[in-house]
Amino acid sequence: MKERGQWGSRLAFVLAASGSAVGLGNLWKFPYLAWRFGMSEGGTGAGGFVFVYLLSVLLVGLPVMVAEIVIGRLGRRNPVGSFEVLRPKTKWKYVGVLGVVTGFLIMSYYCVVAGWSIEYVAKSIAWEFGGYDTFITDKEALQHVWEKEGKGESFEAFASKLQAKQDLETILRETKLQIFPERLFQDFISSPAKLVFYLFVLIALTALVVLGGIKKGIERWNKILMPALLLIMLILVARAVTLPKGGQALEALLYPDLSSVGFDTVLWALGQAFFSLSLGMGAMVTYGSYMRREDKITPSALMVSLVDTLIALCASFVIFSSIMSYNIQLKGGGIGNLFTAIPAIFIHMPMGRALCILFYFLVAFAALTSTVSLLEVVASYFIDQRGMDRRKSVILSSTGIFVLGVPCALSFNLLKDVTFFSKTFFDLLDFLCANIALPLGGIFLCIFAGFVLKHEEVKKELFELSSGAVLVWRFLVRFVAPAAIFCVFLGLIMGRISA
Ligand code: TRP
Predict the structure, then answer these.
(1) Most confident of 134-138, 321-325, 412-416
(2) pLDDT(171) > 70
(3) Which pairs with CB-CB distance under 8 Å and at least 24 residues apart come from 453-462?
(4) Which of 268, 317, 433, 468 has minimal CB crowding within 10 Å?
């Protein structure tokens, strides 16, 4: 057997696992979903979604994470190999295979969004946001106000009335800010060439890292850049608190309006918990396989979940506060929240331009650390299980990912109207991966850890827990988590969930 690496300390594991967990899931998807479920179409608060999400993390995510790490540390292999070692000649290894396929699929649409952050680094350097005063002509802006407030008046009459009142200037200024960031974003994503180009860049960068050379470098950079992301997030939070609608934004994010919670909320919140914590496809099995025997699993898993959740909540608060304070009008369900709401804050901040460049650079970096972990799972499958050499495996997998990624990128422009079950290709893939494949993998991982592994095997790995605590975990993994996921699937099949 080849010599396997090991994390040098428990902290090293926590950092690496947090690096995989923290990514676009926290910065882009969680705030976007929270807004969509809580605030769009006259919603009064995202607290319901957030509350269900927190429950999902606590009752499902955390136990599954512990299960994955236990499996990895027992098997000491990649996900497929670990199942093979632990229960040879059984079908369990196909759970690992499902994970590899899911990783491949996630990577192909994840890289599209990751590419957006590179464009936004470029936009912040060129400071396109600074142009909001001149980007829209006065006529266009007036028209916008008229459409919203004109109520039956002719445009000319409305315009002359406003101009006479002399508050046109102020109205225009507000209006421009309202529509400018969203418009900038829409213009960008309607360019097929740009989106495909960035997709290519992102996959190529990931492939380069996974090919070997810079792997050591990336881990070292991780230790500097992730705390930097946290720091800039805190600056943004501090600013967001003091924005005019900061208090209201916090309330909108946290107030649990349970009346808006339905089956759909549970489906999406649960899926998001799996996605954000990197669960359900064996990423944590792989990371757990490098963990030292003497390190404690449960406190590490707790720490990772805590960090991941806090970052998602901070990002959402900042974005909510900006959207509400600057009254940004969102299109397309707010899929561009991370890209429209944040510049609005930086525009009005000292050193805003520099911080904005840094922020999107850090977003791109956080995304890159996640894509690296995804590609690594896929590539190492071909290497370990299919005997391919590393180069060939990486080239093969990234080519496949690019081929699948192109229609994802194009579903924001050329293929906008090509839908399956009223979802674009991008949305469909995201839905299938995050809401179906990951939770499904989660059920299998739970059954394996809860029923197939012997109590003694598990107890040895969770030595830090009292017998009672191990029983609580077993109960969650055997019954609560699979049942919760199963109910959601049942609701989906019976058409109770509109997806
Ligand atoms: N968790 C990452 C994020 O939030 C995405 C990710 C990386 C992931 N590796 C994964 C998701 C493995 C599921 C499985 O951005």
Answers:
(1) 412-416
(2) no
(3) 453/70, 453/71, 453/74, 453/86, 457/74, 458/70, 461/70, 461/73, 461/74, 461/297, 462/66, 462/70, 462/297, 462/298
(4) 468
79 in Cβ contact with 286 (< 8 Å)? yes
Q: How far apart are CA 405 and CA 198, in angstroms?
A: 11
Report which of 369, 372, 304, 311 is spatially closest to residue 14, judged by C-alpha positions: 304
Rg (CA), the chain: 24
DSSP tag of 5: P
Question: Is 402 within 8 Å of 200 (Cβ atoms)?
Answer: yes
Q: What is the pTM of this model?
A: 0.90
Centre of ligand 1 from the C-alpha of residue 198, in Å: 19
Alpha carbon 481 to its chain centroid, in Å, reads 21
Token pair in block for residue 494: 């019976």
Residue 484 pLDDT exceeds 70: yes
> What rounded mean pLDDT belongs to the chain?
88
**Angle CA(77)–CA(81)–CA(85) in degrees, nearest 5?**
90
Q: How far is the CA of 382 from the centre of ligand 1 (A)?
A: 20
Spatial separation of the C-alpha atoms in residues 269 and 291, rounded to whole Å: 29
Spatial separation of the C-alpha atoms in residues 468 and 479, rounded to whole Å: 16
Pocket test for ligand 1, best of 373, 401, 433, 440 (most atoms within 8 A of CB): 373
Q: Report d(CA 460, CA 179) in Å as an integer.
A: 58
Cα of 22 vs centre of ligand 1, distance in Å, is 7
Give the residues surrounding ligand 1 with Cβ less than 6 Å away.
Answer: 20-21, 23-26, 106, 275-276, 278, 281, 283, 370, 373-374, 438
Check whether 111 has a pLDDT greater than 80: yes
What is the distance between the alpha carbons of residues 214 and 481, in angstroms, rounded to a whole number? 38
Determine the atom of ligand 1 nearest the C-alpha atom of 280: 14
Asked whether the beta carbons of 487 and 108 are under 8 A apart, the reply is no
User: In whole angstroms, what is the distance from residue 238 CA to residue 159 CA?
Assistant: 39
Say whether pLDDT at 105 is over 50.
yes
Question: What are the pLDDT digits (tens) for 258-294?
Answer: 777 888 899 999 999 999 999 999 999 999 998 999 9
